[in-house]
């Protein structure tokens, strides 16, 4: 199971990308936006190890417009949208942008008056907001800057990979495969994901009285009231040592010596049940595999507190009482701000009423909450181990909405082929081949076609899968079990 948005922190080894501002001097630009190409630049590999310049001005300006952005999908362009580019025009503009760069593209289009900024926004997937309907074209420049920046930094699809046979050939030939996984690989085991309507975990949390269901994984909320997290922890904790066919597929890649790294956003630690070795996994958001006392920092194996979690109670540290007993000679007085001081530091007030009775610390599972840093291993391994070795990327069961994990496909070399396996496609990232359907069904069929034996009790021996093309997409395929 993956978290819905990025944990963050200054000390994370994978920094936020630096903002690079490019500009093109176009004489027709209005006074509000003299340099209309000002936008976030393409993220280079080295920039992931570089802090921002700290000004924040460009990002602050853009974020105001980001709130107004409505996504315009290629399917809509194909059907026709009033005052928008056709899909063919949009594809041509995108191709030209990548060919000549941002500044030259702006000069060639807006600078030569060949197209309006309002219409050009639609080529890059942005539907201009209604409140700008009567505004001059210059008012659309900030939106266009965002759109151009997004498109320019997006990895272009490799045209030589399109078919199922291409996907199978890549599986068989490649030797250093990075697998990026999300909640979709565990849902067949009855573990809920976060976002699905009605069935996702967040849709079931209204009873907790949170302003935002994501707060259940907020570190400040946990510190103030850990009972909120532990009231739902039992629902996402695996109850048995099971694993899905997709977990078995990752193990099969490992057994064949092809698995470079499995970056998992899930916190269920089910990869271990399948036998994926710890040295081959980066648990980007931590996991229930271990837990740490919030007071004394004692660390234990996760299964030591599983019984308490399953009962919905808050697990307490068993070492804290011993520490308190050893320190019993020094009583601590509670200050009004919650900071404690020893009796010997007191100003002479001998009243015992204000003295705290020590309590054991809460055992917090070592998952990465919102507001905590990602493990240092994430950025270090990605940049210094995998980037120069990877020859295939497979993204499975995630909508790639969790930064910075979602940025992994864009950080790896653009010449490396990428496969996407999930129920629905994503539009903000370009993959070479989309393999759509239940993850377990897709991987089992790929293995059959590769001549690999993927053994799992959840895969019927007589299972037959049909693969259907998606109209208008040469590289998008839907997998369905025959008779299902």
From TrEMBL:
<keyword id="KW-0479">Metal-binding</keyword>
<dbReference type="GO" id="GO:0005634">
    <property type="term" value="C:nucleus"/>
</dbReference>
<feature type="binding site">
    <location>
        <position position="293"/>
    </location>
    <ligand>
        <name>Zn(2+)</name>
    </ligand>
</feature>
<protein>
    <submittedName>
        <fullName>Sirtuin 5</fullName>
    </submittedName>
</protein>
<dbReference type="InterPro" id="IPR026591">
    <property type="entry name" value="Sirtuin_cat_small_dom_sf"/>
</dbReference>
<keyword id="KW-0808">Transferase</keyword>
<keyword id="KW-0520">NAD</keyword>
<feature type="region of interest" description="Disordered">
    <location>
        <begin position="331"/>
        <end position="357"/>
    </location>
</feature>
<feature type="binding site">
    <location>
        <position position="296"/>
    </location>
    <ligand>
        <name>Zn(2+)</name>
    </ligand>
</feature>
<dbReference type="InterPro" id="IPR003000">
    <property type="entry name" value="Sirtuin"/>
</dbReference>
<dbReference type="GO" id="GO:0046970">
    <property type="term" value="F:histone H4K16 deacetylase activity, NAD-dependent"/>
</dbReference>
<feature type="binding site">
    <location>
        <position position="317"/>
    </location>
    <ligand>
        <name>Zn(2+)</name>
    </ligand>
</feature>
<feature type="compositionally biased region" description="Basic residues">
    <location>
        <begin position="331"/>
        <end position="343"/>
    </location>
</feature>
<feature type="active site" description="Proton acceptor">
    <location>
        <position position="285"/>
    </location>
</feature>
<dbReference type="GO" id="GO:0046872">
    <property type="term" value="F:metal ion binding"/>
</dbReference>
<feature type="domain" description="Deacetylase sirtuin-type">
    <location>
        <begin position="157"/>
        <end position="453"/>
    </location>
</feature>
<dbReference type="InterPro" id="IPR026590">
    <property type="entry name" value="Ssirtuin_cat_dom"/>
</dbReference>
<dbReference type="InterPro" id="IPR029035">
    <property type="entry name" value="DHS-like_NAD/FAD-binding_dom"/>
</dbReference>
<feature type="compositionally biased region" description="Acidic residues">
    <location>
        <begin position="48"/>
        <end position="58"/>
    </location>
</feature>
<dbReference type="GO" id="GO:0070403">
    <property type="term" value="F:NAD+ binding"/>
</dbReference>
<comment type="similarity">
    <text>Belongs to the sirtuin family. Class I subfamily.</text>
</comment>
<feature type="region of interest" description="Disordered">
    <location>
        <begin position="37"/>
        <end position="58"/>
    </location>
</feature>
<dbReference type="InterPro" id="IPR050134">
    <property type="entry name" value="NAD-dep_sirtuin_deacylases"/>
</dbReference>
<dbReference type="Pfam" id="PF02146">
    <property type="entry name" value="SIR2"/>
</dbReference>
<feature type="binding site">
    <location>
        <position position="320"/>
    </location>
    <ligand>
        <name>Zn(2+)</name>
    </ligand>
</feature>
<keyword id="KW-0862">Zinc</keyword>
């Amino acid at each position: 199971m993956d978290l819905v948005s990025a944990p963050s922190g200054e000390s994370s080894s994978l920094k936020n990308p630096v903002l690079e501002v490019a500009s093109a001097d176009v004489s027709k630009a209005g006074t509000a936006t003299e340099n209309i190409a000002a936008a976030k630049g393409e993220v280079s590999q080295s920039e992931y190890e570089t802090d921002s310049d700290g000004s924040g001005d460009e990002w602050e300006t853009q974020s105001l417009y980001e709130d107004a952005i409505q996504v315009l999908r290629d399917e809509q362009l194909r059907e026709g949208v009033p005052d928008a580019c056709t899909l063919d025009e949009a594809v041509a503009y995108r191709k030209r942008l990548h060919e000549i760069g941002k500044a030259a593209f702006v000069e060639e289009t807006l600078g030569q008056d060949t197209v309006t900024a309002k219409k050009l926004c639609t080529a890059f997937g942005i539907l201009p907001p209604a409140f700008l309907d009567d505004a001059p074209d210059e008012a659309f420049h900030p939106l266009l800057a965002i759109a151009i920046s997004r498109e320019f930094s997006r990895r272009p699809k490799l045209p030589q990979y399109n078919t199922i046979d291409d996907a199978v050939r890549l599986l068989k030939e490649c030797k250093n495969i990075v697998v990026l996984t999300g909640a979709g690989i565990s849902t067949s085991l009855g573990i809920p994901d976060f976002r699905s309507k009605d069935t996702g975990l967040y849709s079931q949390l209204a009873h907790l009285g949170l302003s935002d269901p994501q707060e259940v994984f907020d570190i400040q909320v946990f510190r103030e009231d850990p009972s909120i997290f532990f009231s739902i922890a039992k629902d996402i904790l695996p109850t048995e040592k099971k694993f899905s066919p997709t977990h078995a597929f990752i193990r099969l890649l490992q057994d064949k010596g092809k698995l470079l790294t499995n970056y998992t956003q899930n916190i269920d630690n089910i990869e271990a049940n399948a036998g994926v070795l710890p040295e081959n996994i980066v648990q980007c958001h931590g996991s229930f595999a271990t837990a740490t006392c919030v007071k004394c920092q004692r660390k234990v194996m996760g299964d030591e507190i599983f019984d308490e979690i399953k009962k919905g109670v808050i697990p307490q540290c068993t070492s804290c009482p011993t520490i308190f007993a050893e320190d019993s000679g020094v009583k601590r007085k509670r200050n009004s701000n919650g900071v404690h001081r020893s009796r010997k530091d007191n100003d002479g007030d001998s009243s015992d009423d204000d003295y705290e009775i020590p309590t054991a610390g809460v055992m917090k599972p070592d998952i990465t909450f919102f507001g905590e840093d990602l493990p240092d291993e994430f950025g270090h391994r990605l940049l210094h181990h995998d980037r120069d070795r990877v020859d295939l990327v497979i993204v499975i069961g995630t909508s790639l909405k969790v930064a910075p994990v979602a940025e992994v496909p864009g950080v790896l070399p653009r010449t490396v082929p990428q496969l996407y396996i999930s129920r629905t496609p994503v539009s903000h990232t370009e993959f070479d081949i989309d393999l759509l359907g239940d993850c377990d069904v897709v991987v089992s069929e790929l293995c059959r076609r590769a001549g690999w034996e993927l053994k799992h009790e959840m895969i019927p021996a007589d299972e037959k899968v049909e693969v259907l093309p998606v109209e208008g997409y040469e590289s998008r395929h839907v997998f369905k079990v025959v008779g299902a």
